[in-house]
Amino acid sequence: xxxxxxxxxxxxxxxxxxxxxxxxxxxxxxxxxxxxxxxxxxxxxxxxxxxxxxxxxxxxxxxxxxxxxxxxxxxxxxxxxxxxxxxxxxxxxxxxxxxxxxxxxxxxxxxxxxxxxxxxxxxxxxxxxxxxxxxxxxxxxxxxxxxxxxxxxxxxxxxxxxxxxxxxxxxxxxxxxxxxxxxxxxxxxxxxxxxxxxxxxxxxxxxxxxxxxxxxxxxxxxxxxxxxxxxxxxxxxxxxxxxxxxxxxxxxxxxxxxxxxxxxxxxxxxxxxxxxxxxx
Length: 280
Known about the structure:
By secondary structure, the chain is of the alpha+beta class. It is built from eight helices and nine strands. It has helices at residues 12-22, 46-56, 106-113, 134-138, 152-158, 175-182, 225-235, 254-269, and strands at residues 29-34, 62-66, 118-119, 127-131, 162-166, 190-199, 202-211, 240-244, 247-253. It is globular and about 55 Å long. It starts with 11 loop residues before the first helix and ends in an 11-residue tail after the last helix.
């Protein structure tokens, strides 16, 4: 028996209906994280989920996706500089052609390689966007502190956008790196990363400063603590849970999620007296 006969088969229209039921609406700006395999069988594959989101947010709506940059090999030394043996072989980052990191999944790759997609110019914090405000969200992405002020993440918050998790683990919500940037925390870890960047003047080598996004930004939290923050936020009654296809999914407001995460971090790891902090 065909395995699809035993599972819900989704179409563009059924996925769009699921997304509307979750709270996604026309004119929304939304950043998607997805584990597409959990959606179940979909006629048309991952492009159909992208089409469904774009159909729902039509008008001035925009779909965003965190991309990072696919190099396949860790080419950096312990100081964040490209190792001498790789230096002549690393292609320059060009937002017009760079592919998203494969571990971000097929939906990130689908958004990033769609005709008409706009890609921001920060290699490690790169965001791709489709829709009416794609250029507005991705233009002039700062190289230093690319999750901070005037980044696509900050612009998503300013636009009162949303974050959509379609089957994706809650600890993969990239917006929380923006909260880490904003939070007043002592001893935040900073790193430097060297990139070759394609420019109209040729390749420019640039050392980028950033808070450490590969580990908790301060000592103390578990590696998956983003998931704890999102779960605590949902426990307040904020956000929406539901199914998109067969995938357990979550939709949250970017401003509310960010403000909650900043407060959560500062309460546990900030400057307040230890006696005033709640324990989980």
